[in-house]
Amino acid sequence: LAPPRCPGCDGELVGIEEEFCGACGPLLDAAPRGVLPPARSASLYVYAGPLADAIRRVKYRRRTDLLGPLARLLVGAVPAYGGRVDAVVPVPLHRRRLAERGFNQAALLGRPLARALGVPLVTGRLVRVRPTPPQAELAAAERRDNVRGAFALRRPLPDRVLLVDDVRTTGATLAEAAQTLTDAGHDVFTLTLARAPLGGDD
Questions:
Q1: What CA–CA distances, in Å, run from 3 to 6, 10, 15, 65?
Q2: Is the peptide bond before 38 cis (omega within 30 degrees of 0)?
Q3: What is the DSSP letter of 12?
Q4: Residue range 23-56, pLDDT digits in tens
Q5: CA–CA separation, 78 vs 189, rounded Å?
Q6: Which end of the chain has fewer CB atoms at under 10 Å, N or C?
Q7: Where are the domains of the chain?
Q8: Which among 163, 158, 183 has a CA at the least distance from the CA of 173?
């Protein structure tokens, strides 16, 4: 059995170290906790340093073994959302992107969160109906246009929904997905593991 690895530096975790090693853990930059409910949109950390490195390893090197520690960080939001939501919904990838990557990191992050909240993780109802160029290649205004109309709700969801993704930057993707659910009459909260420090791409 391989020893657990630090998501930030990929070094071996030893002793009583938790999600990140003793060197990387203190570098996690917590986002202001005031953004948790009753606010509608929340992020737990700033997308920088070891956390950004970890998320990039997951998405672009297919290091799904690092998703467990990252998901446990997200479960830290349970006290804020317990009893407030009826389902966790991951921001979906388009089927082409899903086929290329092989997994949706938002769904894998959201599953332990849903379990801890005692609500279902619901996939396949909110769908991405058209492929979009990567947001990182676009200017801020172009990002909003890029994702406009990109989502559709195929079947109704429970009333109160926690929409989950890995990173919020400009928020264009998350906002469009949330608006799709709001337009269908759902009460929507959004939660991401990280947010860009000064804006960027999601």
A1: 10, 11, 11, 11
A2: yes
A3: B
A4: 998 888 776 544 555 568 888 999 999 999 999 9
A5: 13
A6: N
A7: 37-195
A8: 163
Structure tokens, 126: 């909110």
Angle at 138 between CA 137 and CA 142, to 5 degrees: 160
The number of CA neighbours under 13 Å toward the Cβ of 66 is 26
Nearest to 113 by CA among 144, 145, 138, 81: 81
pLDDT at 1: 64
Radius of gyration (C-alpha) of the chain in whole angstroms = 16
HSE-CB for 181 with a 13 A CA cutoff: 29
- 131-152 confidence digits (pLDDT tens): 776 666 677 677 777 788 899 9
Q: Does domain 37-195 have CATH number 3.40.50?
A: yes
- Which pLDDT score is estimated for 133? 64
